[in-house]
């Protein structure tokens, strides 16, 4: 009885998520635009025609988002509307996962509904999320991967599933995130630190030390990637 009573108001959250998804979908097909997203659309189109980034054409980004868009374009057609529609759907899924997490995990049970509604509004209706989470660039895919990697990480730590399925899924999501956009390195480093064997909650000093380690690891990942791609090489005079 109590469980049914507690689950009753949840329809408010799901209805709000549906409204946010509809807003994102409409905006993606009518108003969403960025001057440099054409580069990503051309890359996806080229991949769909059998070419490979870095070998057949210049593409100064990590490749996952381009292949992601190319796959959907093969199904729904080579048009910007396909990439925009998929981006809006991925952003809406990220909002949905965030809402579900707050409904289940907010520390004060009596405030979970309010926290979830607030989270959906702050996240899903944020102007930066609406503008950049509905275009062909990697932002929408990265949002979804960040949220899903976080959820798998939390599940792995909760169940001490070191070496288990949840930890592996979290690792897959982190690597996909880096393949989608290397600028998300700090998120990956933070999740990596929290998945180390023997992880346990720390005090403020411990969190600061662990945060510094994560920041240093993120810088190292960015430098290594930049060196490998030539971004950090000095241009000829």
Task: Give the topology.
Layout: H1 2-7, H2 10-30, H3 37-48, H4 64-76, H5 80-105, H6 112-124, H7 127-132, H8 139-158, H9 165-180, H10 185-194, H11 204-229
Main attributes of the structure:
237 residues; 2 domains
Q: What does this protein structure show overall?
A:
The chain is mainly α. It has 2 domains: 1-137, no CATH class; 147-237, no CATH class. It is built from 11 helices and no strands. Helix 2 (10-30) packs antiparallel against helix 5 (80-105) and helix 5 (80-105) packs antiparallel against helix 6 (112-124). The longest helix has 26 residues, at 80-105. The chain starts with a helix and ends in an 8-residue tail after the last helix. Residues 1-6 have low confidence and may be disordered.
Summarize the model shown.
The protein is an all-alpha fold. Helix content is 71%, strand content 0%. α2 runs antiparallel to α5, α3 (37-48) crosses α4 (64-76) and α8 (139-158) runs parallel beside α10 (185-194).
Measured distance between first and last alpha carbons? 75 Å
Show unreliable segments.
1-6
Give Rg in angstroms: 20 Å
Task: List the secondary-structure elements in sequence, H or E.
Answer: HHHHHHHHHHH
* Strand count: 0
The figure for the number of domains is: 2
Q: What is the helical fraction, as a range of percent? A: over 70%
How confident is the prediction overall: mean pLDDT? 77
Helix-and-strand structural type: mainly alpha
User: How much of the residues is beta strand, in percent?
Assistant: under 5%
User: What is the general shape?
Assistant: globular
Total number of helices = 11
The biggest sheet amounts to: none
């Amino acid at each position: 009885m109590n469980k049914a009573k507690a689950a009753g108001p949840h329809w408010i959250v799901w209805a709000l998520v549906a409204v946010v998804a509809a807003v994102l979908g409409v905006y993606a097909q009518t108003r969403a635009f960025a001057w440099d997203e054409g580069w990503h659309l051309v890359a996806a189109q080229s991949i769909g025609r059998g070419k490979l980034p870095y070998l057949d054409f210049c593409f100064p980004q990590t490749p996952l988002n381009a292949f992601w868009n190319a796959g959907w374009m093969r199904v729904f057609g080579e048009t910007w509307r396909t990439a925009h529609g998929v981006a809006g759907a991925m952003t809406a899924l990220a909002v949905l996962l965030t809402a579900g997490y707050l409904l289940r995990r907010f520390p004060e049970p009596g405030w979970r509904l309010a926290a979830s509604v607030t989270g959906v509004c702050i996240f899903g209706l944020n102007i930066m999320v609406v503008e950049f989470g509905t275009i062909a660039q990697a932002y929408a895919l990265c949002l979804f991967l960040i949220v899903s990697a976080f959820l798998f990480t939390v599940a792995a730590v909760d169940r001490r599933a070191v070496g288990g399925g949840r930890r592996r899924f979290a690792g897959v999501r982190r690597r996909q995130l880096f393949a989608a956009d290397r600028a998300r390195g700090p998120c990956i480093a933070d999740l990596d630190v929290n998945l180390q064997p023997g992880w346990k909650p720390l005090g403020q000093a411990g969190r600061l030390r662990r945060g510094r380690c994560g920041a240093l690891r993120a810088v190292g990942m960015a430098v290594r990637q930049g060196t490998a791609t030539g971004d950090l090489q000095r241009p000829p005079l």
